[in-house]
Design goal:
Elements: H1 2-56, H2 59-67, H3 89-113, H4 115-125
Length: 151
């Protein structure tokens, strides 16, 4: 009997709780949709700004400038230089001659920088002309420096 009385009192509460649970689920699902709608509203606002900018641009003057026969054939914006720049032939010749002279100067400097040391070492290590006098007073041989080597 007590159980029946408790059950009678709790049944309407259970129904109320079930109703509230369904409402919470519906609100949560709408909240997800609401965030999507908010993101779309921001995107639409950005697109409206772009449209307003495009409306304020005077395309007619741009098109007329493109169709203008008297206008120069270039757009006024220089192209990127990807090749050799054209120079006056006289300037090119002078520049090349200066470059060649610089290269020759550097080469000679490298060659002659160690020349004194090299010459000193060659003099110190090279055989000198030696004469051997035999008892008869005749020269037996002379040593002549040579770079030819016999293997």
């Amino acid at each position: 009997m007590i159980e029946v009385a408790i059950l009678a009192v709790l049944s309407p509460l259970q129904t109320s709780i079930d109703t509230l649970t369904m409402r919470v689920k519906a609100c949560k699902s709408r909240q997800g949709v609401t965030s999507k709608v908010s993101a779309l509203k921001v995107e639409v606002a950005d697109l409206r700004k772009v449209v307003d900018y495009l409306k304020s641009t005077n395309f007619i003057s741009l098109i007329q400038a493109a169709d203008d026969v008297d206008a120069p054939k270039t757009s006024g914006i220089p192209r990127d230089t990807t090749g050799d720049a054209h120079r006056d032939e006289h300037t090119v010749g002078e520049s090349d001659a200066e470059t060649d002279e610089e290269k020759i100067g550097v080469k000679e400097e490298n060659i002659f920088r160690d020349l004194t040391d090299l010459a000193g070492k060659v003099v110190q290590t090279s055989p000198v002309e030696n004469s051997m006098v035999v008892s008869s007073g005749v020269v037996a041989y002379e040593v002549i420096p040579s770079t030819d080597a016999q293997v």
